[in-house]
## 1
Amino acid sequence: GLTRVQGAAPEKPYTMSFNYNSSAEQLEAVISSAEYCEQEAAYHCKKSRLLNTPNGMPFAWWVGRANEKHLYWGGSLPGIQQCACGLEESCLDMRYFCNCDADREEWTNDTGLLAFKDHLPVTQMVITDTNRSNSEAAWKIGPLRCYGDRQFWNAASFNTEASYLHFPTFHAEVSADISFFFKTTASSGVFLENLGIKDFIRVEIRSPKEITFSIDVGNGPTEATVQSPTPLNDNQWHYVRAERNLKQTSLQVDSLPKKVLEAPAEGHFRLQLNSQLFVGGTASRQKGFLGCIRSLHLNGQKLDLEERAKMTPGVKPGCPGHCSSYGNLCHNGGKCVEKYNGYSCDCTNSAYEGPFCKEEVSALFETGTSITYIFQEPYPVTKNASTSSSAIYADAVMSKENIAFSFLTARAPSLLLYINTYFHEYLAVILSKNGNLQVRYKLSKDGLLIFTIDSGNFANRELHHVKINREGRELIIQVDQVLKLKHNFSEIDFKAIKSLTLGKVTDSVSLDPEVSKANAYGFTGCLSSVQYNHIAPLKAALRHPSIAPVTVKGSLTESSCASIMEADVNTVTTIYSSSDPFGKSDEREPLTNAVRSDSAVIGGVIAVVIFIIFCIVAVMSRFLYQHKQAHRSSQTKEKEYPENLESSFKADIDLQNTVSECKREYFI
């Protein structure tokens, strides 16, 4: 958090030192092995100067790893006495290179990231300008954050069989642990070799499908070989790990079964080497390796191949072609981009983001919220389309639609997505009144085509995934990864796309009645990762609202649909009220329904109890009456018995009917 400072002067500076709960050696090891490190530095000021730019002595500074005083601030570069706004030319007062140096009496700040690894971490903060009237400051130094493994992409390219890199002798007397990645098109070659007087250690590719780990500790050569069912010289990255200890020797290649050899019970066991370690070749300069080796580790120590390759002829630092092996890690339409020391995923045309284009971009829509993406207008666009302009439109026919999105809602009907054209055609995805999903095409030649997915109520507060793919005349609709519909159009001429709208369509004049009903409230809920061909309209609205051709109306809040589904969806969706425009008269407020329901149940129970008591009294009265008439003659009894039986039977039937009717009323 922010720490406030007052009363600091050059003769009485404010000083704060930081403890990272790690030794300096540990911190240095973490930073040096990381690909990137950063610390946020924030200075909030009110009449308190920071660096006193451009030419004055600084009033605040920080101390780094080597106990050196640094006069640049977050977002700037070493050696430049500036803040981030100075580099960006965006400071409050252009005469200064920091916002705080304008020395104003209202709060402002200079905030940015310190990212020069050799100076990190920040170990001390010093402030000296908060002793004047109304002068105050607040500072914050964020945690040290390091990303990536710098050595993971540390690679060297071997261009000739005679080229190699040499390192100091590999000390592996009783144990050796070697791991690395390689890729090659050659059929054979030595990855590394280290010799002694008689002893040696070697890892090589002997044939396109065979990797061998050879070692001799004085008892004769021992070889562990792994056979691959497919060629390993396919110019793809493969992983090798060779280990040796007093008990066994083993070799692992990719995920193939490990080859393990037990060490002899007697004989020599110390590996004695004395020559240099050769990487990518041998001491005899024969059977050298052609290709790339990266991330080489010997007994846990990383060898800097790139640095050694810079000064070695025939070997180049780095290795091109990472996307051939790792391009499939860029998901959801992300494009693999080659880098000198690795690759990155370009998510520009993807509806997702993150290092591998896998992080969803989603937002909450309220009643009336809409996002409209405007496509480039066909040229020329005239109100009175002539034959020539029609020909131009014909060239703009969309041969395909690849649409994908996820949604979560409790309201139906709803309008999820609407695409219209300059020819008054449209494609609409709606939830009908009963929660079914509908895909509606209105085409100039085929008219209105409606495709209904009636496999359930999709307005059920659960996250659903929709994919609509049309390639030429073939249409495929998938919902929740399940194929729901296939259709072949007789003719399709969906052309001159005008706009794409998520949620409520503001220009609703041309909507048909069903789409108009769905559009009355638009969409209320969560939409995620919306993709239309190479365009991501939701991502454009959230990430680039000022430069993308997108218009947002109403309340749009970035959120995660997946986390919302796990939480209480009632905070996201609106319950229907009695003012629903589509006449849902039975959907009243829950509390009113509960009161009315409870009253009905209580009344029914009381009625049933009264009828049961009445029936019991009737039966008892009839029994007493029959008992009093027991003295009558048997003849009279015989004559009356059928009548009494019939009356009793009728009374029982009436009683059963009465109780049955009572039960039916109760259950209603």
## 2
Amino acid sequence: FSGRRAQLAILEKGAKMLPKEIGCILLWLMVMVNGLPVKEDTDYWLKYGDNRLYKTLKHQHILGHAKNVIIFVGDGMGMSTITAARIYKGQLMGQLGEDFQLSYEKFPNVGLSKTYNVDKQVPDSAGTATAIFTGVKSNYYMLGLDSMAKFNVCDEEVNEKSKLDSIMKWAQEAGKDTGVVTTTRITHATPAALYAHSNHRDWECDSEIPSIYKNCIKDIARQLVEDEPGKNFKVMLAGGQRQFGLPVNPDPDDDSCDRTDNRNLLDTWMEGRENYQFVNNTEELMNADVQSLDYLLGLFSPGHMPYALERDDSPKGSPSLQQMTSRAIEMLSKSPSGFVLMVEGGRIDHGHHKNYAKLALHEAAQLDDAVEYAAAHTNPKETLIIVTADHSHAFTINGYPKRGNDILGYANKTALDGLYETLAYANGPGFKTHRSESRDCSSALWRIADEEERRQSRYRHFSPMYLDDETHGGEDVPVYSRGPSSHLLSGTFEENYIAHVIGYSACIGPPTKFCSAYGETLPYRTARTHTAHPAVSEILLALRSICQLS
């Protein structure tokens, strides 16, 4: 056999020769006992190595500059999430899973991004998104402001000096169209870093800003519709009706803010516009005549959009990430000067925070569907596509499960072996799910969840340390890319470097100084090293002299 698909086809053919019920049972038993048959012998692996090497040797970098840029951000989609999502999606398609490839894993270039904030070893999404989109690393929980601004304290003078322009501002100044797609609120941390400047990421509504600062700063939603670059976005598809001041039905899962200033920001957004459309369900989105529209706004839920496994996929429900991405690309592709689009799979992060591994992995698979669409409907010679995460999570793939084992299942088979799951968290609310209620010293510390419970989409995987919300992880995250100048995103680099490559590839923003013809002398500025304050330096010199330190 040349591969497992051919082998499975032969098994299926044989099973069909028997009565239906017997054939199905026989096939099921064969797969359960032996796994999907695979002949991965020496010849298989040698051929794989040859094919991979040949493909790599044959590959030529796409030089020059991009007309369009699409950056996909899987919020919280660290390496363990990508690996688990790869297996999960492969198994959904009837394969073993481990050797499946997500669409962006076929991209020719991959690098590693260092995600720490200026003031935090393990970051949050506001600081990381600010780095990715502005080219400048900043502080934890702050948006669009450099590290000189203070968290949770608004100082107009300091903020004005600390404001950072994003790739969207760069693109608009270069005449390109811009857009945002996310499964979170449009005012949430990652999308907000594209347009807002805020000392606190939670200042999404006027009601969230401390009263002493209400005259110092606009809430994030107002910045989106009133200020550049947000008010110039050609397409915005997301959740966040409450932040716009729209009337909504109560949602027990939505703990986001409400406006108290009686503003309807949809009215503000519509003022002075022509050829625009507002949509709030799948049918309206898919029927929108994007070829004739200049502006498209879709808000599909009061707060964050539903998890993909739980969304209403009827015409009156909310669209998938792939559907939103497809409409955004169609809308922006009309621009003769090109476009910059950010697409976020934001609920990967939310699933992990609650230890909902299945929901998180399904969200990651949905992001891959969107990437696959974008890759199939753009030209790699003119469109730079980047797929990355802003940070990781305290999420592990552990144990020694057999090949093809259910990625959501147990890593071993019997309670005698100390039954535990392949996927687990270092902390989070899953602690209470698995902690035995018995306080009898003779009883087990942890209980074993039954299969019906484990099949639920909101089943929490194991955590040995209770927290209301599981934390982020601090390891580097991968950056996959294809298209013009994508080879520059290789190696290990600071997260803010991504914006610099985008700027150079699309010739937008400060990096345009490097867009000269080959052969010219290009400007180069050496980065400052971490130097101490002069007073500190004097003290250190004195200490070295007195203590005879080298």
## 3
Amino acid sequence: MCGIFAVCHESDCTDKFPLATAELHSSRQTHRGPDCRGSYVHPNTGDILCHERLAIMDLSCVQPLMGTEDKYQVIHNGEIYNHRALRNQQLAQYKLRTTCDSEVIIFLYELLRSGDLCSLLDGVFAFALVSADGDFLAARDSIGVKQMYYGRDGIGRWFFSNEMKCIEDICGPYTLAPFPPGHYFQKGRGFVRYYQPAWFDHRLCTAAPDLDALRASLTAATIKRLMSDAPIGLLLSGGLDSSLISAIAAREMRKMGLAVHSFAVGVDANSPDIVAARKVADFIGTQHHEVYFSLEDGLAIVDKLVWHLETYDVTSIRASTPMYLLSDYIRKMGIKVVLSGEGSDEIFGGYLYFHNAPSDEEFQKETIDRVLHLHTSDCLRADKSCMAHSIEVRVPFLDKAFLDVAMSTAPEHKRPKEFGGRLVEKYLIRKAFDVEEDPLLPREILWRQKEQFSDGVGYSWIDGLMAHCAAQVTDEELSACSSIFPLNTPHSKEALYMRRLFHAHFPSDCAAAAVRKWIPKWQHNQDPSGRASLVHVNSIAKELEK
């Protein structure tokens, strides 16, 4: 996990971007890679690669990494989980110099001379490389787990970076946008899609449910993400998704002789997530840590958090605040890698508003759309709120093999189903792990109702944040804000407050357009809180009747 910054000059560009300036812009994301830094300028093209490294695999090596000769260089942010297999098979003819997973990328390029190399990579990545013949290639992983942006300046030079803050003042007046997931960029060709599985088309998602395949593929996805030369921890909210990942990982980590630390965050010891996580940690046998934060703690870091997140989306900011504070605690323990449960709600329609889907077809379309935009929401939140403290987040639910199984399943099998007297979301994945012999989780956790992460840490956090924002914005300012922010106009005082913070850091129109707001579907309001769903309200009412 690191920070990358790259500059690509078209063949007719004579005004080369200065290396010293590139290194200065790259340093804005030093939090992503505090261990060491490196850079390279291609002697013929002037193309630049800058790297801020967080050492996780082969702790001694420094990027950029060289291929067979000096003019082949690569910088990479992410993890390539099948790098050992690639070394032993496709790259057996080459002599690689390190054990760093990133190194296989530049040698695959030398082998294939094409962005097709991306299809051979099992992992997550944002990378850029240069070659001896002057080629330049940049790419992003299939779903966009790794954050990446691109832009062009006024004379047509291309810029690439993990974080928008490195290039917004260069490219903001011209072209600036998220690098599209599942694509590579090649000099002279532009953007090319390399990832297009069958499940992109909802009409082809007709497979019968396969509980064994779901269980096996998620288990394999979790185990492969334990690859690390640095300490690993588990983010455990007590919800279904993080609990499943933590339980699978804890079993494997004990086999590997590793210490198993889990972490939960909430406003106090009685927060919904804290209570549930405590039960799970006791059941799976982790060394569990609880971190509490106050409303004042959260409010104190909101402005800094907006700078890190590079978004004004209310949902992302609400949920990132506890994650940011928790990451600070984890990093001080010396842990550099954590596993988390992002992606499951999008894959299985786990958000409570999915109960209101009007048809199987619309349910499936919405799950596909949510997965394809995870790079603007949960992946963005997890990556940037943790990387603010130099912690890499790994997300097994977004493994390509697991996605093929889960997303291809016909929607009628993924919709909420009756269990225990109520309709339960994510029924299919719960059922896949509901086994009598040696269960991973207590049944009360396995079948627990969904809480939005920002709700689960304690409802007082959201209520206090909304009250604080309301006190900073007048009714008149909210009514008039469409003239100031015509794009993605804020719909609430909280949204306007966040938009102002964002605009102060990133004033360009292109920066504003790079943000996608998370808005629930099929409900009468835009409030992202799970409590805004009638499903949640009815569930609480039933509990009170008992």
## 4
Amino acid sequence: RSIRAENVCRDRLEKTIILFTKVLLDFLDQHPFSFTPLIQRSLEFAVSYVFTEAGEGIVFERFIVQCMNLIKMIVKNYAYKPSKNIEDSSPETLEAHKIKTAFFTYPTLMEICRRLVTHYFLLTKEELMMWEEDPESFAVEETGGDSWKYSLRPCTEVLFIDIFHEYNQTLSPVLLEMVHSLQGKILTTNNKHKYIFSPVFNAVGLAAYELFDSVDFDQWFKNQLLAELQVSHDRYKPIRRRVIWLIGQWISVKFKSDLRPMLYEAIRNLLQDQDLVHMQKSRIHVTNYIFDYLICTCLFFFQYLEPMFTLLFQLLQEVTQCDTKMHVLHVLSCVIERVNTQIRPYVDCLIQYLPLLWKQSEEHNMLRCAILTTLIHLVQGLGADSKNLYPFLLPVIQLSTDVSQPPHVYLLEDGLELWLVTLENSPCLTSDLLRIFQNMSAVLDLSSENLKNCFKIINAYIFLSSSAFLQTYATDLCRSFCELLKDITTEGQVQVLKVVENALKVNPVLGPQVFQPLLPSVFRGIIDGERYPVVMSTYLGIMGRVLLQNASFFSVLLSQMACELGQELDQILGNVIEMWVDRMDNITQPERRKLSALALLSLLPSLNSVIQDKFCGIINISVEGLHDVMAEDPETGTYRDCMLIFNFEEPKATEDEEPPTEQDKRKKLLALKDPVHTVSLQQFIYEKLKAQQELLGEQGFQALMETVDTEVVAQLQEFLQSF
């Protein structure tokens, strides 16, 4: 009973102490200058209990964490840091900085640094026991498990990083002395240095950026660290784990590329050594660092691709915890992303395993997110061959993007990304791929941050098979777009309009019909002089497609607008042309500028008085278009339209670029049918002017040309001199 009472008393006392320290931390956070008189006493209190013998036997973990947080907040507090120009600093800041500087003397900093490394960075008996009994749980715990966030170890590491950054000139020699004291030491299981190796390596890894100029890491790697990785004794596992982590920290800081093959070899040996099962499981989180940097920066990896991928896949099958599987999947995704199409010969095993893993992870949405990410890179690597994954892939997309299913909260973003890359790499539209678009209407209704990917998906369907897609879903799509346009940002409005523009470009006959409900608002936007240039530019792009590629529908639309607005048809046409000419500068894309010139020129030849009245503006736009697209041929000295594409060349990727997707190829083929890329603007102007001349006769045509500025006429004649 007395023991129980003592425990209750201690528990209450600890809670009271934590409450007091929390009040102190909140006071410092909210009122840093009012806290200034307490800086000296707070630092003395915290440092004495945490970094001297005064606290031995009486401090407890949560109290140590609170004290370390107090020290960290004082060290990092921006209110206590003077400006580079001292005169710009407030007296309060200078006073606080003076107190800090007086406290953090060399002996104090050295003792804090040494204690952090040699005492707090050491693995505890409990951690070592957990390592032996359940290494995978140990790895998960250390890389961010729920309890890890509130434990002592991350707190000590953060404090070390902050103090080392703030006082690196003072502390670098202290840490380097520890490193030098270990170099050349032969480590045995009974060696007195065996416990200090791992903490020192930990400190050097955390301070990697600060030690950039002080440590020759390449030499250290060759002369010592590589050998440490080759020691196979069981009790050496913590050292090997810390060494591989240390290398991962330094790879992004300082590591010569010609050393990478040596490291790849070491990693491969570690992964395939069957005696190191514990080592494999517990260090998978640190291999993430290494693969992230090595694979993305070094072509040497390709010769290790097959064994590395095979060993990582085996590890994925061996581990049991979701967090560990997520880490392994991250590494595999990184490999697939980097090598892209070269992964194809090695992924059959992974393709066969992922459906099973997906089924097993039904209650673990974060693991399913990792699977989705892996599938994204897998589809990109397989390209058109990814169609063989559809029996598994499409149901995954269906579930992930179904907002009526609870998992969508976790899976939607990655599911949309997977949906998009699947479409981009699809060689053809299947009935199942078309069917899952039923999910899109509800996703659009969410009006979330995923809208951009939704629009990309819709565009991908249009490029893949516009007729089948629009005939099936245009009605629902129009309804969703009309709702979106009522309450959407300017950027979102442009994205909606670009979908319509792409539909008109890909299918100039069906496109205007299915999106007819949206076109009157586009027409009104042009006539009213839409104030946002980017929106106006898209409006004109849409109207240009209708006018140039479906003139009969333009006439119907013109009649509809005249009826709705209660104006004469010619008056409406004149207003459109006038606003088009006036706002041409809103269009910055060369393709749209040429489209506008072609569209307005398509009104010629004409006897219509309104069109003749706007003839000067049409010619001005046409000459501007010529300046945009005409380039002088160095061989012949003549001008040619640089936007013309004469034959299909499959897009090629450079070494640093991803290979072209099936969608890239579709866009290239589409360009061969697009007037912007198949019609010479120079030739088109000449033919239209010649037809207008024949219609009006020489005298009438000259009278029309006199309405155009003489400088513009001169430029036009120069461009047309070859005709």
